[in-house]
Amino acid sequence: MVAKQKILIVDDDNNIAELISLYLTKECFETKNCKRWRAGFKKEFQTFRPNLILLDLMLPGIDGYQVCREIRHTSDVPIIMLSAKGETFDKVLGLELGADDYIIKPFDSKRAGCPCPCRSPPLPAQTGCSCKR
Question: How many CB atoms sit inside 10 A of residue 60's CB?
Fold first, then answer.
């Protein structure tokens, strides 16, 4: 059996994180929610070993740009930034810092025909479950 793809959701808004997590779980992804970078993200990242990170830009105590920089020092895991900041400057900065995609909130859950904004970086087709994608 092939292991499920793991997605780490880093967003301090519990409602958004839970909604994304529920939708992804329904689509046979394993998810973990993390609210803060300093308090838990580093530990979650190391123990959960995600295949993808959904990263909010406006986190308490540190912005998502800095989190992206820190991740890129040690990992090349795909990162999709989620933000209410929709200016071109914000998008370009996120991509230049190493994000693989940048999606503006609110987003359509069917973007690119996927359950969340999770298909931009390629994920293996097999997830080890019977879900149809």
Answer: 11
**For the residues of 23-55, what is the DSSP string, one character each?**
HHHHTT-EEEEE--IIIIIHHHHHHH--SEEEE
* Of residues 62, 32, 63, 61, the one with CA closest to residue 46: 32
Distance, in Å, from the CA atom of 43 to the CA atom of 48, rounded to the nearest integer, reads 8
Q: What is the tens place of the pLDDT at every residue in 50-64?
A: 999 999 999 888 889
pLDDT digits (tens, 9 = 90+) for 10-47: 998 999 899 999 999 998 999 999 877 665 667 777 88
Distance CA 130, CA 73 (A): 36
The C-alpha angle with vertex 42 and arms to 38 and 43, in degrees rounded to 5, equals 110
**pTM (predicted TM-score):** 0.79
Residue 43 burial by Cβ neighbours in a 10 Å radius (0-12, 13-18, 19+): exposed
Torsions phi, psi for 60 (to 5 deg): -70, 130
Sorted by sequence, the CB contacts under 8 Å of residue 67 that are 6+ apart come out as 10, 37, 41, 55, 59
